[in-house]
TrEMBL record:
Residues 66-236 form the CHASE domain. The keyword Manganese does not apply. The keyword DNA-binding does not apply. This is histidine kinase. Gene3D superfamilies: 1.10.287.130, CHASE domain, Histidine kinase-like ATPase, C-terminal domain. It comes from Rugamonas apoptosis. SUPFAM superfamilies: ATPase domain of HSP90 chaperone/DNA topoisomerase II/histidine kinase. InterPro entries: CHASE_dom, CHASE_sf, HATPase_C_sf, HATPase_dom, His_kinase_dom, HisK_dim/P_dom, Sig_transdc_His_kin-like_C. Its EC number is 2.7.13.3. One of its GO terms (cellular component) is membrane. Residues 391-623 form the Histidine kinase domain. Keywords: Coiled coil, Membrane, Phosphoprotein, Transmembrane, Transmembrane helix. It is found in: Membrane.
């Protein structure tokens, strides 16, 4: 027994060493996973922020598509309406650069000096600088805000090689082009910056060739960036102590974008000044991505170093080693005593049986939950179908019933008229006139009732088609809202609910009307089932455009509202306050998934007990194409 005890102790030590190695590797894998998520988050946030700014630049160019001679006051009002200082704080300035032939340079300067559209005294100190001799000058004519950017006002970019190269590329290719790393003339700190510009051409001019684009060039709209300011909007301060983020500009794509990363093309370094002491990157904690920014390629690199977030703390390994040593010693001691070993083996067998039984119970519970989930989803769909069928039957009953009653009455009148016609006394003129009048009224009633039925069937058909298909098409939001309300007219009247609709006229979306209809249907069902609880009330549906290519749809009721706890869990699957009373707990979960995944929008719910509920949907006017993920 003693020999077996020593063998068991030695085997335990080997297993402990293997387990320590496994724990250490698992720790390292977890660190890599955390770092990968952090790096992906930084890369994605940078791409999204740049794409947002470039979309805003294209919006500025769209203003010139309406009128290629936008005045200073119009430019100032348009930029002010964008509320950039609050919504896009990462930019330095927004500018308009005018292409001025050398022969018109003096006249152009006089025109700017005499421009009183914003300042009553004009700009008497305006001058084009630096002085240079060129066939065409590219002069910054408008800059917003002007305060803090005075040095850029009147700057001739044709005299600055990095700017000139970007301007010529943008002019010839007709695309948004960014400069290389530059030092902004209006920034005394000397921080790295860059400028993104989009060309503006004369409206109606041919643009098929490079020569045509050069001849039609009016100027450029531009956004000026300080990279440090831009990245402050992207990086979370909590991550900075544990990783370094560096961005290098490797050049224009058409030149191969092959510049090696170095101090000359470093755009951003979260680790501070160049040459400062840096902690080494931990093994496996490095990631990089290539970003295309205005026809240039940026190389973004993220390195994680030893710190609170990614530190390789040996505590779990030490605890594992200590536990393994103790267990090995105990097992060895137990093996030295036959009776103790038998008891241990019996206990281990019992624990194994318990574990197997628990595993079987958990498997059965999981299967039951999956079956319950499938049944609840099916119930939700059948409930929606039942509500739709009930609405259709109730709405069509009235016009079709009227038509049937009128047709029956008309048939009786015709039979009576036929008896009088075949009788001995004949038919008097007054009887004939009365019969024709009655027949005309009956036909009018039948025609009006059937027209009403046809309109209702059209609305029901549109809603049914939209809800059963994933077709992405253009539609007017007002028409869709009224079509959906038509299917719920019976339930709303029965519940004593009043609906107020205020949708901006002409509000058109390129999206998925079936998904929007499903969202509205679920919200109406929720209001009837949970909000009013049979007591009646008012539902308001408002919709309007808002800046940034979005529409805001607000659905509100003045029902009993929700508690704070219910509001926190309103989107959780299978959460309902009326379990067993018609609520499945999937309605708002489905709404959230449709709005965020299919429609690429945002949803916000506000409610308080006794104060009703308000659901605000922010939807893009043009939803991206949705591709369901494979299950």
């Amino acid at each position: 027994m003693r020999k077996q005890g020593y063998i068991a102790f030695f085997v335990g030590l080997c297993l402990t060493a293997a387990l320590c190695l496994f724990v250490a590797n698992e720790q390292q894998r977890q660190r890599r996973d955390i770092f990968r998520r952090d790096a992906d988050k930084i890369i994605h946030a940078t791409e999204v922020r740049l794409r947002t700014y470039f979309d805003m630049l294209l919006a500025l160019r769209a203003m010139y598509a309406h009128d290629d001679n936008v005045g200073r006051d119009e430019f100032h009002r348009f930029v002010g309406a964008l509320d950039l200082a609050r919504r896009y704080p990462g930019f330095q300035a927004i500018q308009f650069v005018r292409a001025v032939p050398s022969l018109r340079l003096a006249a152009f300067a006089d025109t700017v000096r005499g421009d009183t559209s914003l300042e009553p005294q004009g700009y008497p100190q305006f001058r084009v600088h630096p002085a240079t001799l060129r066939d065409t000058h590219f002069v910054i004519e408008y800059t917003e805000p002007l305060a803090g950017n005075e040095n850029a006002f009147g700057l001739d970019l044709a005299a600055l090689a990095p700017h000139l190269r970007a301007l010529e590329l943008g002019r010839d290719d007709g695309v948004v082009v960014a400069t290389e790393r530059i030092t902004l003339v209006q920034d005394a700190s000397g921080q790295p910056g860059f400028v993104a510009r989009a060309p503006i051409y004369r409206n109606g001019a041919p643009l098929a060739t490079v020569d045509q684009r050069r001849a039609a060039l009016v100027g450029f709209v531009a956004i000026v960036f300080k990279v440090n300011t831009l990245m402050r909007e992207v990086l979370e301060p909590a991550l900075l102590p544990d990783l370094y983020v560096r961005i290098h500009d490797t050049g224009y794509l058409k030149d191969g974008a092959s510049q090696a990363p170095g101090a000359d093309n470093l755009l951003f370094d979260s680790g501070g000044r160049i040459g400062a002491a840096r902690l080494p990157a931990l093994p496996g904690l490095s990631a990089s991505a290539s970003l295309v920014v205005g026809e240039r390629r940026w190389l973004l690199r993220v390195d994680g170093h030893d710190g609170a977030r990614y530190s390789g703390v040996p505590t779990p390994v030490l605890l594992t080693a200590a536990a393994g040593l103790i267990i090995s010693a105990l097992v060895g001691a137990l093996l030295m005593a036959k009776q103790g070993l038998e008891r241990s083996l019996a206990e281990l067998a019992r624990q194994k049986d318990n574990a197997d039984a628990a595993h079987a119970d958990l498997s059965a519970a999981l299967a039951s939950l999956q079956l319950a989930q499938a049944n609840l989803i099916t119930s939700e769909k059948m409930a929606s179908l039942g509500a739709l069928v009930a609405g259709v039957a109730h709405e069509l009953n009235t016009p079709i019933g009227n038509s049937l009653l009128t047709a029956t009455a008309l048939g009786d009148r015709v039979a009576d008229f036929e008896r009088k016609l075949n009788g001995e006394g004949g038919v008097k003129r007054s009887a004939l006139v009365a019969h024709l009048a009655d027949a005309g009224k009956a036909c009018a009633i039948i025609a009006a009732s059937l027209a009403r039925a046809a309109d209702l069937i059209t609305s029901f058909k549109q809603v049914a088609v939209d809800q059963s298909s994933g077709q992405r098409r253009r539609f007017l939001l007002e028409e869709l809202v009224r079509d959906v309300l038509a299917t719920f007219a019976a339930q709303l009247r029965h519940a004593g609910c009043v609906v107020e609709v205020e949708v901006e006229q002409g509000l058109e979306l390129l999206s998925y009307p079936g998904s929007v209809s499903q969202v509205l249907s679920n919200l109406i069902n929720n209001a009837l089932l949970h909000g009013f609880d049979g007591s009646g009330g008012t539902v308001t549906i408002h919709a309007r455009r808002q800046g940034g290519g979005e529409a805001v749809l607000r659905f509100a009721d003045n029902g009993k509202g929700m508690s704070e706890r219910t509001l926190r869990q309103v989107f959780d699957p299978f959460f309902t306050t009326r379990l067993g009373q018609g609520g499945s707990g999937l309605g708002m979960h489905i709404v959230y998934n449709i709005v965020t995944n299919v429609l690429h929008g945002r949803i916000e719910v506000q409610s308080a007990p006794g104060q009703g509920t308000s659901v605000t949907l922010t939807l893009p006017l043009e939803a991206p194409v949705w591709e369901p993920s494979a299950s």
